[in-house]
Design a protein that fits this description.
The complex is a heterotetramer.
Chain B (H helix, E strand, L loop, with lengths): L12 H32 L16 H30 L6 E8 L2 E6 L4 E3 L1 E5 L4 E7 L4 E5 L4 E5 L5 E5 L5 E7 L12 E6 L1 H8 L7 H8 L2 H11 L25 E3 L5 E3 L2 H9 L22 H13 L2
Parallel strand pairs in B: 1-5, 4-10
Antiparallel strand pairs in B: 1-2, 2-3, 5-8, 6-7, 6-9, 9-10, 11-12
Chain C lengths: L19 H5 L4 H29 L11 H20 L2 H15 L7 H21 L14 H4 L5 H27 L12 H33 L12 H35 L6 H14 L15 H28 L9 H24 L1 H7 L3 H31 L5 H28 L13 H26 L37 E2 L10
Helix pairs in contact in C: 2-3, 2-4, 2-5, 2-16, 4-7, 4-8, 4-9, 4-14, 5-7, 7-8, 8-9, 8-10, 9-10, 9-12, 9-14, 10-11, 11-12, 12-14, 12-15, 14-15, 15-16
Chain D lengths: L13 H21 L7 H21 L7 H27 L6
Helix pairs in contact in D: 1-2
Chain lengths: ~200, ~325, ~525, ~100
């Protein structure tokens, strides 16, 4: 019987995967995961598209009750946090631990600011007796921003973990900064989704 | 009734049956072909010795192309044929007589353009196209008459239509085909296809042709109530043998004292029963869901009396 | 190179380590595969019991076994959702996929072993939620159609939450497998040499990854709808009940292929080994898995031909549905042709593989009835659907699963089961399955609707026959299970590590394999299916 | 293998990131500004167009998609395709339902 394998001498490296393989795999894995996140929000986008087409007036009238200024501020905050996150990845690649920790902390604070802002926004809505059951627009508003908020919190958790890891000096050599880059990808997605949520919910013409 | 497809009793059945037959011929052919080849190979090339020679065949573009193209052509034919027949199912003729249908948990109401109403019995005239305009009061139901080869889901919040021309006089089962809760399998009704003469008599209100109405004048109220119990859908929720289905059982119901949702209690007498049939949610018995529809305008006072008499007999 | 050349110097099987901790904290893909295997088998048994109960009820037209129709409805909801979400969707992909993918591509483990363990834990959390839901089960059917699922008084939230959590397990597993197959193939293991099980697993992983999130958000919306009284799907509040069906089938049609494509892969592994022939039309089978994976996203509306969708939408989706049938037909022809001029050994796993071809052909052909618009109108929501679905799911996936159990049994556990008993069990399963489900095609033609706790008298003979069949099927499965469990108590490993003369990589290491599979990562020099190459 | 033990690192400079960030700020202002005008049915198109430009910038530069291989591109774009499919077919289905004339 013919054989389909042979043993080459050259594969001497140990049982662990090479750093480069791990790094590429982790990044690729995160991209795959981001795809699922897009489709998770996708259901909400589809529902939004359907109901907006069905009830344009309801959507127009309801969106006026949202605070564009708060929404715009939050957009700016998130974009800025994305910027600092990108710089953080860059700093980690240059093994610049101090800058890495500073930039990650700024990103974390931006996330927190976003949350605080959202808290005020939600409580203002509740104060005016606007709840998810008010109408379909607000049902979508709370579902979309709520699910997004959940992602912000998860992202902040990741960033917090990265700060701790950076403090312990985990990103010193090789491709060990992989977690920063992968965590960064996740954080950018949070920003990316908000970029769509903002005009869809706050800026209906 | 043939063994594999029910008798056909509408104008639409023939075209549906023709394509079904075509698909069946194609399917049986391919099934027999594959099974036969499989069995033949299995016998011919079974391992007789450990070192039996085998051929090294990896692929054959010609064969593979052929057996990709043949199913493709057949499938396209089936698609086109199915679509043509489907168009017929979907497009009622202009002269079709309209009947309003309301499906609710778990009964069927029919309202004819003359203003006549019927419950769980749809009366149609032989060889006259009918267009059903259907709505649901609660969840999704589905109108299905196997002998007519028609089916349409009925959605709450919108009207759905369905049409057919009954071709045979007789009584056919109408089934709910979309799962709609605990009474789903009891959400049965009948379609009564009448000859033009019988239909005219029925329309005039002379219901002597109708067995149930005939029975009404010749049997005791309790027996009449027994018929109504099964015809009008009571049986979907109320048992007569003491089992708890959805609503309280009718057995030993009369004369019992029931605890109500609001903490009070009530003696089950004629007035309470009548009220519960017409206004089910007025006095809810503790522990039962408020799912019963009102039968106001559906059951006449005379029919309610008959039902109460029937309930009284269930000891 | 002879097989013996790969003998490991210090062969310590991955099963050697004992203790609970070595299992629940393991990152070894083979052990995680076993964890999945045990859990899914458990749910298979529970769901099977529910099915036997339903069949027993349906012996007679009236209600006699269950006390109320709701109990029957709960039984089919449990049967459906357990079988679909807890057994058949994660089934082969999570158990055999985990076990085989690294072994077959020449890797030491999956790309992210810890995420692999995490997804098993998420799966367990999902099952725990579901088990707690068993105390107050829902009666919606596994499809959770709105608005019934919003209005029913039974507890829908727990069961849907369980399925939602499970979705993450599915997503992470899919992600892990895609990365593994892309990044960790051994040198020389090119795409054109990959075993077809890997191609199938890859196609499945794409579906798991990209279809699951949609059902996740759908169930989340349903939960929100019940919890917060909002109205996405409730027409009384301005919602659209059909939107739910659109979302649900956007996932659940691809999910049908999540269930069955891994079985295609298994069949493509078993048949060449026992026919000692290269698989016929390797490329056609490999690519058709992909074609199915991609087209299956375009066909979901064929579940809704009588839901009130437009003629145009119905026509488009009927057409696309027919397209999916083509690659499926091609596969069946290829498997059959592989037998030509072979040397066929009727090992129990080969019997499962051959019966797969026959039964899946029935399942596929009856699918054509349902794709044809006018015919579907008559057959929709009748027992014809039930029969078709079971011919695909049992005749297809479960036959593949059982075949895989028998084929890789020695590889997994290093034990040998009783072949004669296995064949007897196969016979009972094959006969019992057909007796159970074939009459249901006729019942469906006659118009017997599905999900009926009671039914009109005229269907009694079909129903009775079907129930007798379920007993034979159940007996067969019990015998098979016992037969596979007994050898696990025996000590020691058998002599031969490659008893069937397979050329595939996983059989070139000892059975059971050592902890990290390969002492040295092998270099692949030829096609996986080069049987009888001169 | 050990010779290639690092992947390409994209030291996109501070200047590029700052420019990208600034562009995103400007586009946010633009989208708020144009929302005040009524383009009829094109309101949503304009808003989505600007959002997509922003999203593309974030993906290409912040997320380094620009430097990724073909495989990553495929898996970044395929979900978007499926999203369009989901939205497109759902909308198509909903708005082609035959109204029953009553």
């Amino acid at each position: 019987m013919s054989s389909t394998v042979e043993h080459a001498e050259s594969h001497a490296h140990g049982h662990g995967l090479g750093d480069a393989v791990t790094h590429n795999a982790a990044k690729f894995g995160m991209w795959l995961f981001l795809g699922t996140e897009i489709l998770l929000f996708g259901g909400l986008f589809a529902a939004y598209a359907l109901f907006r087409a069905k009830y344009p007036d309801l959507f127009y009238d309801s969106h006026k009750k949202l605070d564009v200024t708060l929404g715009a501020i939050n957009t700016i905050v998130l974009i800025f946090s994305s910027f600092t996150m990108a710089l953080a990845v860059s700093a980690s690649q240059k093994r610049n631990r101090n800058w890495l920790m500073i930039l990650l902390s700024i990103t974390f604070i931006c996330g927190a600011a976003f949350g605080v802002n959202k808290y005020f926004e939600y409580s203002a809505k509740f104060h005016h007796h606007i709840y998810p059951e008010t109408n379909i627009f607000f049902a979508l508003y709370f579902m979309m921003t709520g699910l997004h908020m959940l992602h912000v919190f998860i992202g902040m958790g990741i960033i917090f973990a990265l700060i701790i890891m950076a403090k312990q000096g985990r990103f010193k050599e090789g491709n060990r900064y992989t977690p920063v880059e992968v965590g960064g990808l996740y954080w950018h997605l949070v920003d990316l989704i908000w970029i769509y949520l903002f005009p869809l919910l706050y800026l209906i013409g | 009734m043939s063994t594999w497809i029910p008798e056909s009793a509408s104008n639409l059945a023939a075209s549906v049956d023709n394509i079904t037959l075509f698909v069946t011929i194609v399917s049986v052919f391919f099934f027999v072909l594959i099974s036969a080849v499989l069995v033949a190979f299995s016998i011919k090339y079974r391992r007789k010795s450990e070192d039996q020679e085998t051929a090294y065949i990896t692929h054959n573009p010609v064969i593979e192309t052929i057996w990709t193209i043949i199913p493709t052509i057949l499938l396209m034919v089936i698609f086109a044929w199915g679509w043509i027949a489907f168009k017929e199912l979907r497009n009622p003729p202009a002269e079709a007589i309209e009947v309003n249908v309301v499906a609710k948990q778990w009964l069927w109401e029919f309202e004819y353009f003359t203003g006549k109403k019927s419950l769980n019995e749809l009366f149609v005239q032989q060889n006259k196209p009918v267009r059903l305009i259907m709505r649901s009061d609660d969840v999704i139901h589905s109108f299905f008459v196997p002998q007519f080869r028609v089916k349409q889901d009925i959605l709450p919040g919108s009207y759905q239509q369905l049409w057919f021309t009954p071709t045979k006089v007789g009584t056919f089962d109408l089934l709910c085909a979309e799962y709609c809760g605990s009474g789903h399998s009891k959400m049965l009704a009948t379609v009564k296809v009448l000859s033009p003469e019988a239909f005219a008599r029925w329309e005039k209100g002379d219901e002597l042709e109708d067995g149930a109405a005939l029975a009404a004048i010749s049997v005791s109220p309790a027996e009449r109530g027994k018929d109504l119990y099964s015809q009008r859908g009571c049986l979907a929720c109320h048992s007569i043998d003491g089992k708890e289905v959805i609503g309280p059982t009718f057995k030993n119901l009369y004369g019992k004292t029931e605890d109500l949702e609001d903490g009070s209690s009530v003696l089950v007498d004629e007035n309470y029963l009548r009220e519960s049939i017409y206004e089910p949610e007025a006095k809810m018995v503790k522990g039962y869901p408020p799912t019963m529809p009102s039968f106001k305008g559906i059951l006449s006072e005379e029919e309610v009396t008959a039902l109460i008499e029937y309930i009284k007999t269930l000891k | 190179m002879a097989n013996g050349a790969m003998t490991q110097t210090q062969h310590i099987p991955y099963l050697a380590q004992k203790g609970l901790k070595s299992w629940i904290l393991t990152t070894d893909h083979k052990r995680i595969g076993i964890l999945y295997l045990v859990t899914i088998s458990f749910f298979f048994m529970i769901a099977g019991l529910a099915a036997l109960g339903m069949r027993y009820e349906l012996m007679t037209p009236e209600l006699d076994f269950f006390r109320t129709p709701t109990e029957y409805n709960v039984a089919f909801t449990l049967h459906g959702s357990l079988m679909v979400f807890f057994f058949i969707v994660p089934g082969i992909a999570a158990s055999f996929g985990n076990f085989l993918i690294p072994l077959m591509i020449g890797a030491r483990d999956v790309a992210f072993p810890r995420i692999n363990l995490l997804s098993f834990w998420i799966y367990l959390v999902g099952t725990a939620i579901l088990l707690s839901a068993l105390a107050q089960p829902a009666d919606t059917g596994w499809t959770f159609y709105t608005p019934y699922s919003i209005q029913t008084g039974t507890k829908v939230i727990l069961i849907t939450l369980g399925v939602f959590v499970l979705g993450f397990s599915s997503i992470l597993t899919g992600m892990n497998f895609i990365v593994t197959i892309h990044k960790l193939r051994a040198p020389g293991m090119t795409w054109s040499r990959l075993p077809l099980f890997i191609w199938a697993s890859y196609a499945t992983a794409i579906l798991q990854l990209l279809a699951t999130p949609v059902v996740g958000i759908t169930l989340l919306l349903l939960i929100a709808e019940r919890a917060f009284d909002i109205g996405f799907f409730d027409p009384a509040k301005g919602g659209d009940p059909i939107l739910f069906q659109n979302f649900f089938w956007f996932y659940s049609h691809p999910a049908v292929y999540i269930m069955v494509i891994p079985a295609f892969g298994i069949i493509s592994e078993i048949i060449p080994v026992f026919a000692r022939k290269p698989i016929f039309g390797y490329k056609a089978i490999a690519y058709s898995s992909f074609a199915i994976a991609i087209i299956s996203f375009f066909v979901w509306l064929h579940h809704m031909f009588v839901s009130g969708i437009s003629e145009t939408a119905a026509a488009i989706f009927s057409f696309l549905t027919m397209l999916v049938a083509i690659p499926t037909a091609v596969k069946v022809f290829n498997w059959t042709a592989t037998l030509y001029k072979g040397s066929i050994d009727f090992h129990s796993s080969m019997l499962y593989a051959l019966s797969f071809i026959v039964l899946f052909t029935v399942g596929g052909l009856t699918g054509v009835y349902l794709g044809a618009l006018a015919v579907d109108v008559h057959l929709h929501d009748t027992y014809f659907i039930v029969a078709h679905m079971h011919y695909v799911m049992i005749g297809g996936t479960v036959m593949g699963f059982f075949g895989a159990l028998h084929f890789w049994y020695q590889k997994w556990f290093g034990k040998v089961f009783n072949e004669l008993t296995a064949k007897a069990a196969w016979f009972l399963i094959f006969v019992g399955f057909n007796v159970t489900f074939f009459p249901q095609f006729f019942m469906g033609f006659q118009g017997m609707p599905r999900r009926y706790a009671t039914y009109p008298e005229e269907y009694i003979s079909y129903h009775a026959l079907s129930t007798y069949g379920s007993w034979i099927l159940g007996l067969g499965i019990i015998i098979m299970t016992v037969n596979l469990l007994i050898p696990l108590w025996k000590k020691g490993w058998p002599e031969s590590s490659n008893p069937y003369g397979s050329l595939s990589l996983e059989w070139q290491v000892p059975s059971p394999p050592p902890h990290e599979n390969f002492d040295e990562i092998p270099t692949v020099t030829d096609w996986t299916y080069a049987y009888g190459k001169k | 293998m050990s010779a290639h033990n690092h992947t390409e690192e994209h030291h996109t400079g501070l200047r590029v990131y700052a420019a990208v960030c600034l562009a995103l700020f400007v586009l946010t202002a633009v989208t708020v500004y144009v929302a005040k005008f009524d383009f009829g049915d094109f309101n949503i198109v304009v808003a989505m167009l600007i959002a997509s430009i922003k999203a593309a910038i974030v993906a290409l530069y912040f997320m380094h998609l620009k430097f990724e291989d073909k495989l990553t591109w495929i898996y970044a774009l395929y979900p978007l395709f499926l999203l369009f499919l989901l939205i497109g077919f759902t909308i198509m289905e909903t708005f082609t339902r035959v109204p029953v004339i009553k």
